[in-house]
């Protein structure tokens, strides 16, 4: 019979009591004003992201799925892992391709998904515990940039960080994150890193500006989160969604632009914002990579690159890096 998953909650379920307040205070006083993307993933945001992964324009999901379908067995063998940790796991949909390969190899004993979205994580953990009886499922409700020290210890671990989520981090944040991860892994442990690759601006912009408007709603939901969690009075309809490709930084930059002069009060953060017409709030960046840049960032952090897999169209890369 399936074992019940264990769930450790490291994030305060009352977001307003935790780092949301500091993140909002710091981010919204910068220029451009910025909101950290992890707060996009309330229940609604997680649902919307799930919808994004099924959009025809959102190629990263399909490209990474194709790599995993083709190469999961090789990845599993190359890692030699007995514990799979997944950071920013969400629904863990693609991870099942890895779990299936791990099950056929017979080597996996434990799966530890980590995500900020508690309900999404609990649902995914239940489904996986059911589907893979005998697997210990140890879920962690947490932030992968803050709670790395709580990851399960022992065995040979592979940390999967899929979907291109590392592209949400700025260079300095990536350096800190990869360095901290390398420091806590033991020799033989590995990181499986999914990164979206640089490609034509048209294809990129289409992926973040879908015809059905799902991405627009996903980005706009950040204001709904602040209204609910911090008692803010943003009028989400007074903003327009502006996604653009920054060719110099090689990243997508997703912003909300104030279409009218407005005063917004964020009582839970003790802030009053006066926004002028055209003023923008950056809600998310999504950095795109070149294979050489991924390798050098990993090596700088203390990893050795074992192998890189890409899809046939070279849209996305999975890199296995070993400590
Ligand atoms: C979950 C961060 C990988 O950057 O492509 C998708 C989030 N934002 N559409 C990405 C996202 C808008 C996604 N990541």
Give the strand content: 25-35%
Q: What's the arrangement of strands in the largest beta sheet?
A: 1-5-4-3-6-7-14-13
* Structural class by SSE content: alpha/beta
Topology pattern, helix = H, strand = E = EHEHHEHEHEEHEHHEEEEEHEE
Task: Estimate the helix proportion, in percent.
Answer: 25-40%
Mean pLDDT: 96
Which kinds of small molecule does this entry bind, naming each only once? N,N,N-trimethyl-histidine
List keywords for this structure.
4-stranded mixed beta sheet; 8-stranded mixed beta sheet; 26% strand; alpha/beta; globular; 323 residues; binds N,N,N-trimethyl-histidine; 9 helices
How does this structure look, described?
Pfam families: Methyltransf_33. Keywords: Methyltransferase, Transferase. InterPro entries: EgtD (IPR035094), EgtD_Methyltrsf_superfamily (IPR051128), MeTrfase_dom (IPR019257), MeTrfase_EgtD-like (IPR017804), SAM-dependent_MTases_sf (IPR029063). This protein is α/β, with parallel strands linked by helices. It is built from nine helices and 14 strands. The strands form three sheets. An eight-stranded mixed β-sheet has the order 1-5-4-3-6-7-14-13, with helices on both faces. A four-stranded mixed β-sheet has the order 2-12-9-8. The longest helix has 21 residues, at 59-79. The structure holds N,N,N-trimethyl-histidine. The site of N,N,N-trimethyl-histidine has 12 residues, from α8 and β12. N,N,N-trimethyl-histidine (AVJ) is lined by residues 52, 60, 163-165, 167-168, 208, 215, 218, 284, 286.
């Amino acid at each position: 019979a399936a074992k019940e998953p264990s769930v450790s909650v490291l994030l305060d379920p009352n977001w307003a009591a935790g780092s949301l307040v500091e993140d909002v205070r710091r981010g919204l006083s910068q220029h451009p004003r910025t909101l950290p993307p992890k707060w996009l993933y309330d229940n609604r945001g997680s649902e919307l992201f799930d919808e994004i992964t099924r959009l025809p324009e959102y190629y990263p999901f399909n490209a990474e799925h194709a790599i995993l379908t083709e190469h999961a067995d090789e990845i599993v063998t190359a890692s030699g892992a007995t514990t799979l940790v997944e950071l920013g796991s969400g629904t863990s949909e693609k991870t099942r391709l890895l779990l299936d390969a791990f099950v056929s190899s017979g080597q996996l004993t434990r799966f530890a998904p980590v995500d900020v979205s508690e309900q999404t994580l609990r649902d995914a953990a239940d489904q996986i515990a059911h589907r893979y009886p005998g697997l210990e499922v140890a879920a962690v409700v947490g932030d992968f940039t803050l709670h790395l020290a709580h990851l399960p210890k022992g065995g040979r671990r592979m940390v999967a960080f899929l979907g291109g989520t590392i592209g949400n981090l700025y260079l300095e944040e990536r350096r800190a994150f990869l360095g901290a991860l390398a420091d806590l892994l033991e020799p033989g442990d590995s990181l499986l890193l999914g990164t979206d690759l640089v490609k034509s601006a048209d294809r990129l912009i289409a992926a973040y500006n879908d015809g059905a408007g799902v991405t627009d709603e996903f980005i706009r939901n950040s204001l709904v989160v602040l209204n609910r969690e911090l008692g803010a009075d943003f009028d989400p309809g007074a903003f327009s969604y502006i996604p653009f490709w920054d060719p110099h930084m090689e990243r997508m930059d997703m912003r909300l632009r104030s279409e009218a002069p407005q005063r917004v009060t964020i009582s839970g953060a003790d802030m009053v914002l006066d926004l002028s017409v055209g003023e923008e709030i950056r809600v998310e960046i999504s950095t795109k990579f070149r294979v050489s840049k991924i390798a050098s960032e990993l090596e700088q952090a203390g990893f050795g690159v074992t192998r890189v897999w890409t899809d046939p169209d070279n849209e996305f890369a999975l890199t296995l890096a070993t400590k």
